[in-house]
Amino acid sequence: MNETARRWRLILGRYADQSLDSNQFGPGDDEIDQALAYLYDRDYVERGHKLRPGGGGGSDPSKLKAITWLERTRKLFPKSTFERLQSQAIENYGLTEILADQKVASSIEPTPQLGSALLRVRGRLDKKLEAGLRQVISQVVDDIVRRVRPKFTAALSGRRNRQRRSFVANSRNFDWRRTINANLAHYDLTNQRLMINRPHFNSRMRRQLTWDVILCVDQSASMASSIMYAAVCASILAGLPGVTVRLVVFDTSVVDLTDMATDPVSVLMTVQLGGGTNIARAIGYCETLVRTPARTVLALISDFEEGGPVSALLAAVSRLREAGVRLLGLAALDEEATPVYDRRVGGLLADRGMTIAALTPDHFAEWLAEVMQ
């Protein structure tokens, strides 16, 4: 069996044409076939097809248990493929029994994609699965925090001081002017290259003034990934000196979750994805939270698909801008970090003074640092 035919047989499963004979599978293909059938045969069943015998040897895939399937799939497929199958199993095919055992739940690969999938189905899950769900969400959050916190700490711990030298070799602190001047004697005329004998870095000073950061987060259905990162960012910001954080989530109503801002898991177990969107109402509420406009950053995280009058939203943004509030609009990102938002409304917000961008959390940290200089 050639490779193309083999792949088509694995894709089509037991419903493949008989000419794609599974008896010609290579070593390990029977297990791959069973693992894929366990998940994707559900599509055929939901459409009224009766499962007919097929596949290679070994136990029938219908007899596999979700936990057995999870462990087997982890061994059979590359990491990226396994992570995608894991997310699809829970979001699209209802294999939520994986969450029933906390010990098993703790062994699930904690990926942002899985976290987003769980947030999207959370409202449909049985209450008895809540402990397992919290366990997995906690693992996903911990993994994101480990990756994102250093960016925020480096970006927001202090501004660069060009008068003091630092011995911390950090790219953000690199002083290229001083480095060039100090190493001109090492210029290689033959190769026309500057040989750096000793690089120089700026030190950073701790900020003395407090900034208020208001994170206003859309919780419509498309925002699962964005709201997960927003909750993590809020918790990190809440732990930094010189920063006061307010966390607000909204759909057609507005909920202030500031008292949970230090606990992203509780935030994610509270939000309800779905429903309509009234951004103007949320921005209007945030307007009441502003104490010192010149020291306030309002970050709207949304797909900008306004369900209410756009004129009311634009009026609120204009008032905040005129008062001196720094306005940031973070467009929603999908699972592949591709911006997904209403560009017309985004353009109108930009015209009213809101800086619009689609940024990953680490770049958001750097952007926030620039705004708060």
Features:
373 residues; alpha/beta; Rossmann fold; 2 domains; two-stranded antiparallel sheet; 14 helices; 45% helix
Protein model, in words:
This protein is of the alpha/beta class. It contains 14 helices and 10 strands. The strands form 3 sheets. Strands 7-6-5-8-9-10 form a 6-stranded mixed beta sheet, with helices on both faces. The protein has a two-stranded antiparallel ribbon with strand order 1-4. Strands 2-3 form a two-stranded antiparallel ribbon. Helix 6 crosses helix 7 (130-156).
Question: Can you describe this structure in just a few lines?
Answer:
The protein is α/β, with parallel strands linked by helices and 373 residues long.
The string of secondary-structure elements, in order, is HHHHHHHEHEEEEHEEHHEHEHEH
Structural class: alpha/beta
Oligomer: single chain
Domain count, please report it: 2
Estimate the strand proportion: 5-15%
Q: Report the CATH superfamily of the largest domain.
A: von Willebrand factor, type A domain
Name of the CATH class of the largest domain:
Alpha Beta
Radius of gyration: 26 Å
Looking at the overall shape, the CATH architecture of the largest domain is 3-Layer(aba) Sandwich
Q: How many alpha or pi helices? A: 14
